[in-house]
Each structure stands twice: as C-alpha cells, then as structure tokens.
Amino acid sequence: MPPSTTVDPDRVVVAEPVRGSDIPVQLMYMELIDGVYAPVGLRMPHGNGPFPLVLFASGNGGGGMAMVRDLTQNRSWTQEQFLDAGYAVAWLRYRAEVDYAYDRIGSLIEDRRQGRQLLNRGPLEYEDVISIIDHVRTLPGVAADRIGYMGMSHGGEMAFKIASEYHGVQAMIASEPAAHEFLRLKPDATAHVNPATGLLDVESMLMREAEKVRARISEDVARERMAPITTPIFVQGRNSDELQGIFRVCYDLLIELGKDARWATYEHDVHGFVYVQRNRDGVYAPDAVQVRAVKDSIAFFGAHLK
C-alpha cells in the first residue's frame, strides 16, 4: 500500500507563502457543475471574519494551478491593497473560451439520466465562475452575502455574461471588457481570420470610437442580454486601447437601461494595468495611474460590499 497522506482528496488545500507578504495563499480546487475542478488561490486578511471576498479574473481561461500560483506571486500588488482594506481575495482560473459559443448555443440545462447528471451541452468558462462563486460563499471566514468580482479583458466580458444570468454577486468591475461577443459586434476589416485555424483574430480589431461600435452591434440582442442585470457594474476603460469604443458602449447601454453603473477611463500604455506586476527587478512599482485605478476599485467595492 502507498504511504498515507494528510491531504483530504475531496478537499485539497495547500498553503503556500507569498513573496513579500505575511499572508499565505490557500491553493485549492473547486468542483464545477460537470464534476471537473478549477484551481483557485484564496487569501484572507488578518483579523476575524467573515470577510467580503473579491474574485479576480484575468483574460481568457486555461493555465491551471501554475497560472494561479504565478498570478499570486507576481501580479498581486492589487490584491495586497484589497487585503489591507479588509477584503479576502482570490485568483481563479476557468476553462478556455470557446470561440463565439456563447452566441451560438442556448442556456445550460441540467437533467438526470439513470440517476446521473445530464447536460444539454458542455459548460462555458463564465459558467465555471458561477460554480466557483457558489462554492466560495460556503467557505469559513467568507461573508456569503458580500461577494465581488473583478475581471479584466475577457474576464471583463465574463462579468456581463455572469450578471445577465446570475444574481449572487453584489458588485462587479469590468476592466477593459472585451465584450464584442456579448454585444454581438460585427467585426470590420481590421479583424482577420487565422488561416491556420479558421478562427477570427479579434485582437487586431480597431474599435476605438463608441459611435463606430454602436453602429456595428446587434443592439436589440445586447439590450436583451443586459435587461436582467441587477448587479452594480463599474466599467473601466483605457484611453489608448484599440477596443475603447466597446468599453464605453457597455457602460452607455447599462445607463440607458437604468442599471447601476459607473464609468472611469485611464491613460495607460499597458493592457491590464489594474493588475500590477513585478518589474524586471522583481519588485512592485505601481505608477500614479495604477494607484488611482486601484483606489477607485476599492472605493467602488466599499460602497457595495462593506
């Protein structure tokens, strides 16, 4: 027989020190709707809980636990500010985006067959996040009714997808949300098909002006998707981003539909600037814009989670 282990296979949690911090990370796996597991790195502030929790998502999915560990060790200055403000924080990963699947397939339906689970289709990445939210609210020390979500780029688009179908998050930040699919945006000639895969390369798309974007979205579809949203959403733009027009239209539609929404845009050269990463010397050196954006983010969550 192999040697016994102290790790519970059903509840794998491994504590790991975080570089430059006295608050470790709890690396764990959370079960998703279809029985597979997603990696999460949870950190709790000093003091007695329960604490409000903010989940952090960056870009497209994939990367697994290795990416959670890298984000925790090297891109967590922003999380450190949240911890200092009394929030629990967690980096999370989810499955890779399936190109335009959200726009082609309907809602996920769960049934039973022969006493076992039956789904009408495979889950998508934003549905992984919903499963994670349902799980984290049951954890000791987490305030179940004070859950926030901060997503950047594709993670920002996922904020809209989640909020459209699920109401278990009290506040969301969509930072530079690449929400072309959610808005059903018709790409122009600046987007190219990758000849090797046949998939559309939207990273080359130029959608800087809100007027241009507004003319190319399926507005009836976008409004129908936004109509059920009840979660307050802070949309963050970046002035020089190629998709700035998409960011702004997301906010404009929320306001036109009477949603609780906020807008701020920042002048910065880096996509994903709100997630400050270590520089070449291995230290965090946020600039004034990053400091302001993170302060704005904490203030927004403070209004809804504290």
Summarize the structure in words.
The structure is a single chain. The protein has 306 residues and is an alpha/beta fold. The chain has a single domain, classed as Alpha/Beta hydrolase fold, catalytic domain (Rossmann fold), CATH 3.40.50.1820. 30% of the residues lie in helices and 23% in strands. The chain contains nine helices and 13 strands. The strands form three sheets. The protein has a nine-stranded mixed sheet with strand order 1-2-3-5-4-8-9-12-13, sandwiched between helices. The chain has a two-stranded antiparallel sheet with strand order 6-7. Strand 8, helix 5 and strand 9 form a beta-alpha-beta unit. Helix 4 crosses helix 5. The protein starts with 12 loop residues before the first strand and ends with a helix.
In short:
By secondary structure, the chain is an alpha/beta fold. It has helices at 64-74, 77-84, 101-104, 125-136, 154-165, 210-216, 219-226, 244-256, 288-305; strands at 13-16, 25-31, 37-43, 51-58, 88-92, 110-113, 116-119, 142-152, 171-175, 192-193, 200-201, 233-238, 261-266.
Which tags fit this structure?
306 residues, alpha/beta, Rossmann fold, nine-stranded mixed β-sheet, two-stranded antiparallel sheet, 9 helices, 30% helix, globular
Helix content: 25-40%
Overall, the morphology is: globular
Largest sheet report: 9 strands, mixed
Tell me how many strands there are.
13
SS class: alpha/beta
- CATH-defined superfamily: Alpha/Beta hydrolase fold, catalytic domain
CATH topology: Rossmann fold
The CATH architecture term is 3-Layer(aba) Sandwich
- The level 1 CATH classification is Alpha Beta
Report the portion of residues in β strands: 15-25%
Give helix and strand order, one letter per element, not per position: EEEEHHEHEEHEHEEEHHEHEH
> How big is the Rg?
19 Å
Total number of helices: 9
Taking strands numbered 1, 2, ... along the chain, how are they ordered across the largest sheet? 1-2-3-5-4-8-9-12-13
For the record, the count of structural domains works out to 1
Segments where pLDDT lies below 50 for 5+ residues?
A: none
Mean pLDDT: 94
Distance between the terminal alpha carbons, to the nearest Å?
51 Å
